[in-house]
Task: inverse folding
């Protein structure tokens, strides 16, 4: 979602689970998926700069805790992340919402979803500079949504059950760097870049209609068109193109990169549940990790 254009987004059915317990020191323990080393940080240590590799995480945790005006004790938060990190799937926002809810539960506090979204942006600002709020909205509200900066997240209708395969390229890029790349293109080639951005907005609007009508073939074509425009803006990579080619050869109805690009994942639309499993197996062989997700998200899925 760039330069005022809307976005369609859906919960994956996986995310982050967190629990908070009272402790003498504020500690955040994060258990990551897929071979990523787990992290444990204690705020007084991290904020003094003794472990700079985790300084952003420490700062984000400190700011999130700062949203609680009064706390009777400090806390130890354990967060288990299921979503691939740095892959354009909103893992940062899912951590923020899960941690926020765990801490709120510890202190017997309750916030509305809109309040949670606003509070979580103190965490997201550390990693993404000026986040749109899209990832936080999906993490807080789940399901399928139509998002714009002006109106936030609104429910969007989906006819039937849709099956997608998410395949991780194994490489990633900074969201801020990718946003900066597009901003530079807007300066260097304003008319061309603006046309691309407006075309993406039109694709998203048509995608909303295709979802509501249950027209998977049209939606897949729109995914391909969306990706071609993103690729023209230099947001794709050879690894992402390899995954897209493999998904097309395996019969995917369409596919595109996730998030801000520069790495991360490809999401491909399968014909049905059986085809999704076959497609996932195909992509598993050339990706660092692949999994099947569906819309609507099954009840009970974490956000």
Result:
């Amino acid at each position: 979602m760039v330069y005022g254009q809307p976005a369609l987004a859906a919960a994956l059915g996986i995310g982050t689970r967190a629990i908070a317990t009272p402790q003498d020191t504020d500690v955040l323990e994060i258990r990551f998926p897929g071979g990523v080393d787990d992290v444990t940080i204690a705020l007084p240590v991290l904020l003094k700069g003794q472990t700079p590799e985790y300084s952003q995480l420490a700062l984000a945790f400190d700011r999130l805790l700062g949203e609680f005006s009064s706390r009777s004790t400090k806390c130890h938060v354990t967060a288990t992340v299921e979503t691939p990190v740095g892959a354009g799937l909103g893992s940062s926002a899912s951590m923020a919402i899960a941690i926020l809810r765990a801490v709120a539960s510890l202190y017997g506090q309750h916030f509305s979803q809109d309040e949670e979204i606003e509070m979580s942006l103190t965490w997201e600002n550390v990693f993404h500079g000026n986040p749109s709020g899209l990832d936080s909205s999906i993490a807080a509200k789940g399901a399928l949504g139509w998002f714009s900066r002006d109106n936030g997240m609104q429910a969007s209708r989906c006819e039937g059950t849709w099956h997608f395969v998410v395949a991780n390229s194994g490489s990633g890029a900074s969201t801020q760097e990718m946003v900066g790349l597009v901003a530079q293109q807007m300066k260097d080639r304003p008319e061309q870049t603006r046309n691309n951005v407006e075309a993406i907005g039109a694709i998203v609007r048509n995608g909303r209609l295709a979802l509501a009508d249950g027209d998977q073939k049209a939606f897949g074509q729109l995914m391909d068109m969306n990706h071609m425009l993103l690729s023209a803006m230099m947001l794709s990579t050879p690894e992402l193109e390899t995954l897209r080619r493999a998904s097309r050869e395996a019969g995917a109805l369409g596919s595109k990169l996730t998030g801000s690009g520069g790495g991360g994942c490809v999401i491909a639309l399968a014909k049905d549940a059986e085809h999704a499993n076959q497609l996932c197996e195909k992509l598993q062989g050339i990706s660092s990790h692949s999994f099947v997700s569906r819309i609507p998200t099954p009840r009970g899925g974490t956000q």
